[in-house]
Amino acid sequence: MSQRSNFSSKIGFVLAAAGSAVGLGNLWRFPYLAAKYGGGTFLLVYLILAVTFGFSLMIAEIAIGRKTGLSAIGAFKKLDKRFGFLGVLAAIIPIIIFPYYSVIGGWVIKYFVTFVTGNVQAAADDAYFNNFIGTTGEPIGWFCLFIAFTSIIVLLGVEKGIETVSKFMMPVLVVLTVIIAGYGLTVDGAVDGLIYYVKPSMENFSGMTVIAAMGQLFYSMSLAMGIMITYGSYMKKDNNLESSVRQIEVFDTGIAFMAGLMIIPAVFAFSGGTAEQLGQGPGLMFVMLPKVFNSMPMGGAIGTLFFILVFFAALTSSISLMETIVSILRDKFHWSRKFTCIIVTVIALIMGIPSSLGFGIWSDITFLNLSILDAFDFLSNSILMPILAFFTCIFVGFVIKPKVVIDEVKSSDGTFKGEKLFVVMIKWIAPICLIAILVSSVGNAMGWWTI
Ligand code: TRP
After folding, report:
1. N or C: which end of the chain has fewer CB within 10 A?
2. How remote is the CA of residue 148 from the centroid of ligand 1, in Å?
């Protein structure tokens, strides 16, 4: 067996895991869900879930990886033969996410090009985005370009180079987000948006708030799909696992929060903050941000810089998604790297094109009232991930027992501050909540009841 390389330092580990975690989930997905499902109420629910549920699950996954030194499929099997199927389930999720993630990645390239060529004014128009995604060839072209970037990098194995670049760009992105959010808040009407975004109110609460927040938590922190197990397998024994998890969480949540701050007040400042505007879904970032840039001094340049940074954040995540799929297939079938990359690219193209067409000529095709892209998103985030998370909890809580994880956490310096919280969450609260969430979201989607 080949020797596993290790991250040389704790900060190296945290940055690598955060680099994979921070992506379109934070910048594109979080703001539109927060806008749609209750603003401050969503934010509060998300934060509570992150420090309890997200914390426990991430601890468990990284500990399993570090203990076994294997990625998901092997790790579950090694700890208990009967649970190998969890690894397989974990492998299916990135395969569903990767294609539609790349469709959004294509939209980002399109907006970058729009800004570079100085079409800020046009992009600020309400109809610009919908006209774009409604066409047939163009979004598919950008999608193919995004996939091409990703697969060439994975094929050549040069992701280290990209990671170095993007680690350097990440702080720039954070600074830029602060500037854009700061500017946005000075526009008339933005304060109402700020209040909507940070102030919880009971009337905005619904069952969907919890379901959406939970799905987003998995997605954003790359949980419940085996990625963190893989990362854990590369982590050194003497790095403190608990504080690493805290840092990844703070980083990931901080960026998501800033993205919301940049986009949601803008909905109020530029579009009046109607329920329809807030609830528009996947297009929110692409519709709102050009309006901000268009009204901002040097908006063209800032917008250009912004979209190139988002592109890099998306690219590092998509590389990590594709890399995961490739390594799983190679472990299983022993194909060459090149052949596997080609297969994965073809599958992603086949699955991604319908997601793209679902906003145009195939908009009549819906599943449970969701567009094709939203249906893939729903299937992975609201169905498969809760199922996998549920089994992971049961597996850790009752099969291998929490002690295995606790010992692994303590192996660095003997402490585990969140131990009690971890045990109660993983054995009882998380599995019960997950089942409740799963049942209610499926029922809601099937139209059996409304939550
Ligand atoms: N967490 C990533 C984001 O916020 C998306 C993502 C989901 C991901 N699963 C992943 C990234 C697996 C890398 C690997 O955009």
Report:
1. N
2. 18
